[in-house]
Design a protein that fits this description.
The complex is a heterodimer of chains A (about 325) and B (about 375). Chain A contains 8 helices and 20 strands. Chain A is of the alpha/beta class and about 325 residues long. Chain A folds into 3 domains: about 100 residues, Elongation Factor Tu (Ef-tu), domain 3, CATH 2.40.30.10; about 110 residues, Nucleotide-binding domain of ferredoxin-NADP reductase (FNR) module (Rossmann fold); about 100 residues, Ubiquitin-like (UB roll) (Roll). Chain A has a 5-stranded antiparallel beta sheet with strand order 5-6-2-1-7. Chain B has about 375 residues and is of the alpha+beta class. Chain B is globular. Chain B has 2 domains: about 110 residues, Rieske Iron-sulfur Protein; about 220 residues, Naphthalene 1,2-dioxygenase Alpha Subunit, Chain A, domain 1, CATH 3.90.380.10. The chains are: A alpha/beta (about 325), B alpha+beta (about 375). Chains A and B meet through helix 2 of A and loops of B. Chain B: Keywords: 2Fe-2S, Dioxygenase, Iron, Iron-sulfur, Metal-binding, Oxidoreductase.
Chain lengths: ~325, ~375
């Protein structure tokens, strides 16, 4: 029972849409049953892709005190599964079906110090936390890393609000984030909250463990939507059921199996709970584990995978040159 | 002429409780390395001390299947293990071990509530943690101040917490409920004065040149052996929102200047009361009687605790009877008397807190009754 995980669905009217960075749209919603959004909260909403409704999760970037206005921000990724294309098309006056704010990433009040780490669009989960910590007079550092300045949503606002507490790292300006330095300099009693690409979060997790810092003080949220490799189309086979399905780049393996009529067990659909685990019987290619359920040892063994987020790729190197050999094929057993 | 419509004092029979407030969850001595379960504001809590002595209050339900953590085990440091599948949490409510898998689900947390140990009590904040400022804990400094001695107990009352506040804000009931100890007719006959600000209400009553009722005669004789004669008696009731009432009480030899500030010829006690809503129809009533004379006498401490305990048993019986009658007469309203001025200011301040939180003023008839305990 991590605070609020009961989905209360409601209508919301889009009251404002504005570009806040390259390919990032800020969308302000007016829900019919407002509820205050705690720092770290997100909401689920339904997007329509090819006429079908699909659920997506977006962090609440900010909200009014009474929750009557809630802002999210959506990155339209080149590898979008279709949800972000839908979200970029919404206009003021449109209505969306959304949940009241949900909470899987609560900010604890009372830690001796904090590091907030935002990578790219992950900043959406961090903006509200940073504001609350500032209001509390907490000892915090906000670290914001991205590939280029024009991709950084809310940078001017964050600079204005957090001043010296904000450290900005931008790859193409030569100020890349060094995870080793960041984790190496963290106060041993600090809590670190992060949201960003899985490569960044994996690197921080590894450095955190290497430094033998208290693991529960490392807080992160992943919606399971980034991997080590770009998503590509692959084939999944379930011999026992005689099923062979194509998993397009914009669709998850779990969705593809459901589409093929396989009755699947699942819960979180974001790589945390492990319920959608399938056994890997054979593999042509490699597995791009995108979950946080398996340990590194288990991921390396590649005997199982969380089909809600993890994918097959043609080459363990991820090099495009190898992709010419055709789609990866993963043969699995389901429960 | 402009007529301004002011809101009339609502007199809810079952008042809701604010969440953005410090409530006492336990006495300091109750919080140990042995887990206890206690419900505060309808939230079941698992309460314990970490190895280093820090108090902890977690939601008493495991993230996984809601098994009560209070039936689990305390491990090293600040850790607690669920009795069902062995999931371990730290004092921040973060999962630190999931026995059946190699990793920890990052969502696995239980709420850990802000707690502060002060005035011999463990205070807990169940509302918005970003607003939990320990400076707003009610002043009950007499509880552990070198110039005061005494002790108290907890009464599990089966009524809405507001009924206890009503009871303490108007002491004219003493004549009728506590006739053998502290009651006397002069309580109803004397004037009282009410003042308030944003968070406090004070009701003061002085009774001049009266006979000391049995409880006070005994106390006078503890300090002034063989005392006889008239006294001046005072009751100064201090309410601090949302549910703490400290009552400055005492008597002094009549005409020796107590009303003007010289209490040297009298005995002075503080009845410390803080009432924690448990459910809409039950509360934990923490009280103590503190005195500032004969500090060395543990005998007097025990006698006063037993004496006040007997008095409060009479209140408890009345409050239970009142709650039963309230629930049996849903169509009848409360009406107010002049003597309720203090209690109505209390309600007004609590209603403001509820409105600020966007919560309903009435807990209605939906509240759960107390589980047998």
């Amino acid at each position: 029972m991590a605070a609020t995980n009961i989905e209360v669905w409601q209508q919301a009217t889009v009251v404002e849409t504005v570009a806040v960075a390259t390919n990032i749209q800020r969308i302000v919603l007016a829900p019919t049953s407002p509820k205050r959004a705690e720092p770290g909260s997100h909401l689920d909403l339904f997007v329509t892709i090819d006429g079908e409704r699909h659920k997506r999760s977006y962090s609440v970037v900010d909200s009014t005190a009474d929750g009557s206005r809630v802002a999210i921000s959506v990155l339209q990724a080149p590898t979008s599964r279709g949800g972000s294309i839908f979200m970029h098309a919404v206009q003021p006056g449109d209505t969306l079906e959304i949940t009241q704010p949900l909470q899987n990433f609560p900010l604890r009040v009372g830690a001796p110090s904090y590091v907030l780490l935002a990578g790219g669009i992950g900043v959406t989960a961090i903006v509200n936390m940073a504001r609350v910590l500032k209001n509390l007079g907490a000892n915090y550092t906000l670290v914001y890393a991205a590939r280029s300045r024009e991709r950084m949503a809310y940078l001017p606002e964050l600079l204005a609000l957090h001043g010296d507490r904000l450290r900005v790292h931008i790859d193409d300006e030569g100020t890349q984030l060094s995870v080793a330095e960041l984790v190496g300099s963290v106060d041993p009693h600090a809590e670190l909250y992060m949201c960003g690409p899985i490569r960044l979060m994996d690197a921080v997790r590894r450095a955190w463990r290497e430094r033998e810092l208290n693991y529960p003080n490392l807080r992160f949220e992943t919606f399971g939507n980034s991997g080590w490799y770009d998503p590509e189309e692959f084939i999944v086979r379930v011999p026992r059921l005689g099923v062979e399905a194509r998993v397009p780049a914009g669709r998850s393996m779990l969705e593809a199996l459901e589409d093929a009529g396989v009755e699947m067990m699942f819960d979180c659909r974001k790589g945390e709970c492990g319920l959608c685990e399938v056994k890997v019987l054979a593999l042509e290619g490699a597995i791009d584990h995108r979950d946080v359920f398996y340990s590194e040892r288990q991921q390396h063994a590649a005997a199982k995978m969380c089909c809600c987020v993890s994918r097959a790729v043609t080459s363990p190197t991820g090099l495009q040159a190898d992709a010419a050999r055709g789609p990866a094929i993963v043969t699995i057993a389901v429960s | 002429m402009t007529i301004i419509q002011t809101k009339s004092s609502t007199t809810n029979k079952v008042l809701n409780y604010p969440l953005n407030a410090w409530y006492v969850a336990a006495w300091d001595h109750e919080v140990t390395r042995k887990l206890i379960s206690r419900t505060v504001a309808d939230k079941p809590l698992a309460i314990y001390r970490a190895e280093d002595g820090r108090p902890v209050a977690l939601a008493d339900a495991c993230w996984h299947r809601l098994a009560p953590l209070s039936q689990g085990k305390l491990l090293a440091k600040d850790e607690i293990q669920c009795p069902y599948h062995g999931i371990v949490y730290n004092s921040a409510g973060r999962c630190v071990s999931m026995p059946a898998q190699e990793t920890i689900n990052p969502s696995a947390t239980v709420p850990s509530y802000p707690v502060v140990e002060r005035h011999r009590f463990l205070w807990v904040w169940l509302g918005d943690a970003t607003l939990a400022n320990p400076d707003t804990i009610p002043d009950m400094h007499q509880m552990d101040h070198p110039e005061w001695a005494g002790d108290g107990l907890t009464i599990p009352v089966t009524c809405n917490y507001q009924l206890v506040l009503d009871n303490l804000m108007d002491l004219t009931h003493e004549e009728f409920v506590h006739g053998s100890s502290i009651g006397q007719a002069e309580l109803s006959e004397s004037d009282f004065e009410v003042t308030h600000d944003d968070t406090t209400v004070t009701v003061s009553r002085w009774m001049h040149n009266i006979d000391a009722p049995p409880f006070w005669l005994k106390n006078m004789r503890d300090k002034f052996p063989g005392f006889t004669g008239k006294v001046d008696r005072w009751q100064i009731i201090h309410f601090e929102a949302p549910s703490t009432i400290n009552i400055d009480v005492g008597v002094a030899k009549a005409g020796t200047g107590a009303p003007e500030g010289d209490r040297s010829q009298g005995v002075n006690g503080y009845v410390m009361n803080t009432i924690t809503p448990e459910t809409a129809r039950s509360a934990h009533y923490f009280w103590a009687f503190m005195r500032n004379y004969r500090l060395e006498s543990q005998l007097i401490t025990s006698q006063l605790r037993a004496g006040v305990s007997g008095v409060f048993k009479e209140d408890e019986d009345m409050l239970l009877a009142q709650q039963t009658a309230i629930d049996a007469n849903p169509d009848y309203e409360f009406y107010n008397l002049n003597i309720d001025a203090g209690g109505l200011w209390v309600r007004r301040l609590i209603e403001r807190m509820l409105e600020a939180e966007g919560r309903t003023v009435s807990a209605g008839r939906t509240g759960r009754v107390r589980d047998a305990d």
